[in-house]
């Protein structure tokens, strides 16, 4: 069920890319070919042994942090951020590898510290693991990815079963930290983007332009949509980033409420299946890996679809295995490959 749900998600994303930008379609096809090859080879890779090696877990994490740091010093920026590294003619996002490394490290940490994870010192140490790449991502500036990394950490605490008082105390600290970021770090345009959904009619040609065009695309779709290649907002390039941040709006415009509902239900099916696999996992480490992957899908889904519909701030978060992007596709493929191996061992 999980594999077929991913195939459906990828197919829907490819359908949207074929309509809006055929060049992105062919590039994404290569990434999907690599991704599904990796997933299908899951039975031949002893992921349990690989992930049991501390050097591997921290190696992936350390490399991602080093690349996030390195990207700060590159001269070129893309769309105003330095979130990409160019290597051998290929652009990739270090923050996607950071999500992978963070899940590996936190899964290992909480599975070893299962009994004492409620201790303040252990909670703080786990926070440091998340905060380091999150701060580096914020400096790009990439507020959305920074937020995702911290939400993954918070999700791990909930999975671990942290008591309510400690979680609320941590939540209060998070609010204070965000207030400090708001005052001392975030630029005016970032503040405008984060608060734009609260004031949808403000600055329609500036901070709120993307959201307004997205809402027009979704609102004009109707039940069955305008048809393949007939979406006016995306085809006439009124809708920005129709292949990444706003691919859901571009898809719904052409396939309507029916198509949008189908995509939403498919994502729900993926998350549901991941939760079931996580619950059935034979050991805590496997459980944390699977549920950590479910967290990535859930966080990305709600932020991306919510921002496309104008009920969440626009932070540049994409839909996993749906939006264009090789870094994201391969990161998800590695996690799904591990999960397929966990499924085999749980039977």
Protein topology:
Layout: H1 2-20, H2 22-40, H3 47-52, H4 54-71, E1 85-87, E2 90-92, H5 94-112, H6 120-138, H7 143-160, H8 164-184, H9 188-195, H10 209-219, H11 232-235, H12 247-280, H13 284-308, H14 326-346
Antiparallel strand pairs: 1-2
Membrane topology: Multi-pass membrane protein
Organism: Candidatus Jorgensenbacteria bacterium GW2011_GWA2_45_9
Transmembrane segments: 28-47, 54-73, 85-110, 122-139, 145-162, 167-185, 255-276, 288-305, 317-339
Structure, explained:
The chain has a two-stranded antiparallel ribbon with strand order 1-2. The chain has one domain. A hairpin with a 2-residue loop joins strand 1 and strand 2. With 347 residues, it is an all-alpha fold. Helix 5 runs parallel beside helix 7 and helix 13 runs antiparallel to helix 14. The protein is built from 14 helices and two strands; from the N terminus they run ααααββαααααααααα. One of its GO terms (biological process) is regulation of cell shape. It is found in: Membrane. GO terms for molecular function: lipid-linked peptidoglycan transporter activity. Pfam families: FTSW_RODA_SPOVE.
